[in-house]
Structure formats: C-alpha cells, structure tokens
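Milestone M4 deliverable, item 7.
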Amino acid sequence: MKRVLIIAGMFTLIAVIGGYAYFKGKRYQIAITQQQIDRTLAKQFPVKKSALFIFQLTYSNPQVTLLPENHRIQVGLDASLNVKINDEAKNLGGGVTVTSSLRYDQNTQAFYLTDTTFDRFEIDGVPEKYRKTVLKLAAEYAAEQLEQYPVYTLKATDAKKTAAKLLLKNVEIDQQTVVVTLGL
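Output delivered:
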C-alpha cells in the first residue's frame, strides 16, 4: 500500500513539474476593445443615488476613451441632479469625467476599473452651500459604480489559457484596444 502511494505521489510530482515546464514562458495575449468596454459599462447604467433627502444624482451614458500615454481609461458620464431647494425640486444636468486603471482579479478571472480619479464635474446651478457635498458624493459614487463590476471576464477555451489565467504579465493600452498579456 505504501509503495502504491509513493508511486502515485511521484507521478503527481512529475505531472506538476512537466505542466509547469510546458507552460513556463508561454504568453497569451487578449485584446479588449474599447467597444467591448463600452458595451459592458452600458449594461450597468443608468444608476441613481439619493443623499440626505435633499438631492438625487443619476449617472447615464458612459463613454470610454482609452488613454495610451498614461495607461488609463477615461469614462465620461452624463449626470443629472435633482435638488430640493425650499421644498422645490430642480433638475440640473451636466457631466462628469473620471479616469481609472485596470486591475485583474485572479479569483474571478475578470478585469475591473480601479484607482478612479474624478477629473471633471460640470453641473450648472448647484447651490453653493451644497456644491462641496454634491462634489464629494458624485466622486465617491462614480468610483463605486465603475469599480464594482468587471469590464471584461476571461473565458476558459482550452487548458493552456486556463493555466495562463493565473498570472497577469502586462497591460498595454493603444488607441482602440487594451492588450493583456497572461502567462506563468
């Protein structure tokens, strides 16, 4: 019985070493287009958030721009703000722009936006006494909405790609595509 266990252990060890040797150094590239990211984000919007029973913020119509010079992804969002001032509701419109990086999660084998920075907030007519609160909420809510859902999920099409999904080697952004390199 001991002998069978030793032989089985040796075969397992040989299989693991052989698999590692086979996959080591192999690279697999995946291209994620701007249109794929656009479609994925479009499914998440519009979104609404109420705060302090005073205003409701709505984001819609995400528009992605890839920024190859700094390896970031910019997302423009239409923004509308419904503010109650002296028991009168006002609907204000405008837009926001945020910039994010791309993060790979090995457990879900998906790519997420991360490190979101708030670049632009343009909603005319926000009362000065609410402006700071609205700006803070708008920034937090944009990051929360963009970072919680994947923009792309890898699909296991064969054993090689499944093994390669374990490690992200590189992410490069060109004009219309995010090129992801995976490997061991």
